[in-house]
Design a protein that fits this description.
Order of helices and strands: HEHEHEHEHEEEEHHHHHHHHH
Number of domains: 2
Shape: globular
Strand order of the largest sheet: 1-8-5-4-2-3
Number of strands: 8
Radius of gyration: 20 Å
CATH architecture of the largest domain: 3-Layer(aba) Sandwich
Oligomer: single chain
Helix content: 40-55%
Structural class: alpha/beta
Strand content: 5-15%
Distance between the termini: 57 Å
Number of helices: 14
CATH class of the largest domain: Alpha Beta
Bound molecules: zinc ion
């Protein structure tokens, strides 16, 4: 088994070592594979970890994109696989709410399951990270589109009673992001991943502002990781839009690193601010109205522009200076 620390974890750990905040949480991922054919490395990894039975969680689309192939790889490696399927609601969306979570949990046997595999989108990952946490089992991430930064984070944004709440759960032990799979992802999902990254402009500003005016806890290393990931995407926007292998590699790595920054800080501040609140508000409103959901990252990208405008407007207002000076 390759016991080497993943290079992203290594570089983040060395950046964190020089950080004055000294309140870092350990990074728990022991394998990060972002390359063509990464899917083929998942079955040997699970075998090396000694897992004899796993639950593979996917939905109809993601089973077609990668789940089916992974299931045959696992069978060939002699790993028993229980298939668990996330079902869409009446609008055709997989929703991480009470009903969706219970339905999935019923498909996953407590006895004999050594690990859970999340094969799919951000929503599916949030459901699996919560269920794995509650079952006390590890989970492995297999993204099928570079659409969100939540693959490697700890918190699970879930819907309870129609409200979106982020519940602390667990990060995956490993992530296998196959560029051959990601390249087949529909363009709107890639654009959504880029939108989720763009949102870091306002989340980083919000976090810094909250730290300066209300002494919110702040970690310069986590902020730096997010900023670097954001700038890598902005500099390579063309390659990402063209969905070239290199562009998708840059986007996927940025999404992973943004998730790791949240893991390092222990909360979502480095990568989620007012633009995420607005996105979550729109999501709850669409659920309430029974409308088909928009992609998370698309909402975040638009919300980022709205929040940036709001900050600019406030900055032009004198009373804002008083608030910023702590007299508001
Ligand atoms: Zn996001």
């Amino acid at each position: 088994m390759q016991e080497l620390e993943p290079s992203q974890v290594r570089s983040i750990s060395s950046l964190a070592a020089g950080c004055p905040c000294c309140k870092h949480h350990p990074l728990t991922l022991d394998r990060i594979v972002v390359e063509r054919g990464a899917l083929l490395e998942a079955a040997p990894y699970l075998k090396e970890r000694g897992y004899r039975q796993v639950a593979l969680v996917s939905d109809e689309n993601t089973y077609r994109a990668a789940g089916g192939r992974l299931a045959s790889e696992l069978a060939a490696a002699g790993t028993r696989t229980v298939l668990a399927g996330a079902k869409p609601d009446a609008q055709g969306d997989v929703v991480a709410d009470e009903a969706g979570l219970i339905r999935l949990m019923l498909d996953i046997p407590q006895e004999g399951t050594d690990a859970l595999l999340a094969v799919g989108s951000g929503t599916l990952h949030d459901m699996v990270r919560f269920i794995a946490f509650k079952m006390g089992k590890p989970f492995i991430s297999v993204p099928t589109a570079p659409s969100v930064d939540g693959f490697t984070s700890v918190g699970a944004p879930l819907i309870f009673g129609g409200e979106k709440i982020t519940i602390p759960a667990i990060a995956p032990d490993a992530i296998f992001a196959d560029l051959d799979v990601l390249i087949e992802a529909p363009q709107p999902l890639v654009a959504a991943g880029f939108g989720d990254m763009l949102g870091k402009y306002t989340s980083l500003f919000d976090w810094r502002f909250g730290h300066l005016v209300r002494d919110e806890p702040y970690c310069p290393a986590a902020a730096q990781i997010t900023k670097q990931a954001l700038l890598a995407c902005v500099r390579n926007a063309e390659a990402i839009a063209e969905r070239s292998t290199e562009g998708l590699r840059i986007l996927m790595n940025a999404l992973i690193e943004s998730g790791l920054a949240m893991q390092l800080f222990g909360q979502s501040h480095p990568a989620s601010g007012a633009e995420h609140h607005l996105s979550h508000y729109w999501e709850m409103e669409y659920l309430r109205l029974g409308r088909k959901q928009l992609l998370h990252g698309a909402k975040v990208g638009v919300a980022c522009a709205v929040i940036a405008q709001t900050y600019h407007r406030l900055a032009a207002d004198e009373s804002f200076d008083k608030l910023a000076a702590g007299h508001g």
